[in-house]
Design a protein that fits this description.
Elements: E1 6-15, E2 18-28, E3 32-37, H1 44-51, E4 59-64, E5 67-68, H2 69-72, H3 74-77, E6 80-83, H4 95-105, H5 112-121, H6 137-145, E7 156-159, H7 168-183, E8 187-191, E9 205-209
Parallel strand pairs: 3-8, 3-9, 6-7, 7-8
Antiparallel strand pairs: 1-2, 1-4, 4-5
Helix pairs in contact: 4-5
Amino acid sequence: MVCPTLELRELACVRGGRALFRELNISARAGSLLRVTGANGAGKTSLLRMVCGLLRPQGGEVLWQGTGIGRLREEFHRQLIYIGHAAALKDDLSASENLRIAVRLSGGDASVHDACAALGAVGLQGNEGALVRSLSQGQRRRVALARLVLGTQAPLWVLDEPFTALDASAAAWLLHCIASQVQRGGLVLLTSHASALALPDGVPQSELAL
């Protein structure tokens, strides 16, 4: 029997003395998209942080390819790209520098050429050397999402409200990027207020409602 790529087993989250969810069980396989939906405060971001090993659950376990992520540690994080709701960029560094640092922190390496090409792919041509403090919220979001251009080898993408602050053209690019990742066998886990994403036919997506 083949293990699910990602499995949440009896997962529980308590924040501020309030149970956000308990006994959460779900599994997802490679080559699929799992959308986490729910009202503000339902625990969507907490769940994504648990999946990434950034927040310890009050009960249960997150498994990656049949093994608890706590036992995999760095091996698991090398297979993961996490982009949080906040851009998490350094204002005093350029767009290119921020992107290269993000890749390095995840155990990879990106040249200046690679970073500039990725920023160009998200519509930031001419802004590669601009300090992040000078960029708009939408541009800052694009800098963070450019990480996906350089992360096609990572089998797991975890994205917290990735469409926030994006204009129509950037949102269309991101939809294509997500669809391509799923089609090449990756697993994408994201939070979204939408009931469904307008992905091409044949790209499997499921929903987890909190």
